[in-house]
Amino acid sequence: MYRKRILFVNPWVYDFTAYDLWMKPLGLLYLASHLRNSGYQVTLLDCMDRHHPYMPISNNPGPKGLRNMGCGGYYREKIPKPIQFLSIPRYWSRFGIPWDRIEKYLSEIEPPEWVFITGIMTYWYPGQVAFFNLVRQIWKKVRIIIGGWYPTLCSEHARQWGFDRIVSGVDPLQVIKQLSSDFRELSLITDYKKFFSVKPSFDLYTKLDYTVVLTSIGCPFRCTYCASGRYFPEFWRRPWGDVLNEIIYDYQNYRIQDIAFYDDALLYRTEESFLPLLRALQKEQLPIRFHLPNSIHARYVTREIAELMRECNFKTLRISLEFSDAIIQKNTGNKVNNSIFEKAIQFFIQAGYAPEELEVYLLFGLPGLNVKDYEYSIQYVTDLGLKPRLSLFSPIPGTPDFERATWHQIKDDPLLQNKIAYLYLSEQNELYEALQRKISILKIPSYKFPH
């Protein structure tokens, strides 16, 4: 029986910098599982797969500590900068499997009927467009679909390239609805439980250092700089037993030692799912390190959660403070205040985490902030005995802070939404570098429990 072929693609990243910090195209892998179950012949080409046979050794492998937990640097090819970035003193690169090797791979395989191209950042669209053009050059009649955050947030910009179908939306059910006219088998997926009833197709990789898991979609907060909660109609959480089974399955079948959670609000309504999941993981005693690259909400940390996370070997803990000024906290979403933050830190320290294991993120570059705002936040975190880390603001379409950052044609050109480009073109790079130097020489006092 003939089965229609689909090629799923995670394209190159065109940027000043990129690093594999537990990065996998999870939505694409779920979609691949559903279409495989419907009888399609599915192939994955992840241009960012560090273990792909065509991927050369990275020019910059990254810190040893992260390498030991499954992360690593990507191979990069330096290429000419876009004209918009000529004034920026950074190299521009294409990260991932070299172009000529991808071209060779596509030329040798049998043409599929469909090519699905995903993408994460809006400003990474050059990789999606470059892959589209390469496919058109090799296969004239193949139909090409683009999806992800770029066509969702910059739909008008995405229409100019000539894709056969543009999927606008990141909510799984919105994606399924738009695809069901061409893939009628998907029309049977009418709720989130059905969508998450399959396991993502990690078996399409030849080798894995880690897998990723998603326990919920959406976010209850509406922070002025973030889009994650604005493009899902509701917050929905998977049954914790399903998540536990998936973690056990990944460990047994892929023999991985690291798993990253992709949730934007992992601890929200924790009694329903994450807390019983932690209790179950404690009983399982799996030899796995867990990581939270998207950070967690300090508001929902309890003593029991902190203790269980420690016992279950949660290694990467990112806690977003963003700002220590109460007025700024309130005006940007009110998700945390200093009292809530200090209490969460205290729970983690009492649970056995060392202060240096807790990554405290401050947001740099938000429109309207000045040097005193940053210095106050840095000093506040330092006085607690913790080391602050500056996270660069990236203007995201559809958010209030994007509207406040409307300069330099940023609305018309997604490339200008790049966090490093924004840093330089908004002329904040010197301040950022000065603050980074200050943080690097700070003497962090011993942690003291707040009174």
Question: Any key phrases for this structure?
Answer:
five-stranded parallel beta sheet, 18 strands, TIM Barrel, 451 residues, 2 domains, six-stranded parallel beta sheet, Rossmann fold, globular, alpha/beta
CATH architecture classification name of the largest domain: Alpha-Beta Barrel
**CATH class (first level) name of the largest domain:** Alpha Beta
How many helices does DSSP assign? 17
Number of domains: 2
Question: Which bin fits the share of residues in helices?
Answer: 25-40%
Mean pLDDT: 93
Structure class:
alpha/beta
Q: What would the principal axes of the Cα set say about the shape?
A: globular
Instruction: Give the N-to-C terminal Cα separation.
Output: 71 Å
- Can you list the strand order of the major beta sheet? 11-14-15-16-17-18
Look up the CATH topology of the largest domain. TIM Barrel
CATH H-tier superfamily of the largest domain = Aldolase class I
The Cα radius of gyration reads 22 Å
- Portion of residues in beta strands equals 15-25%
Q: Could you give the count of β-strands?
A: 18
Q: Kindly report the oligomeric state of this protein.
A: single chain
| Main sheet characteristics | 6 strands, parallel
Low-confidence residue ranges: none
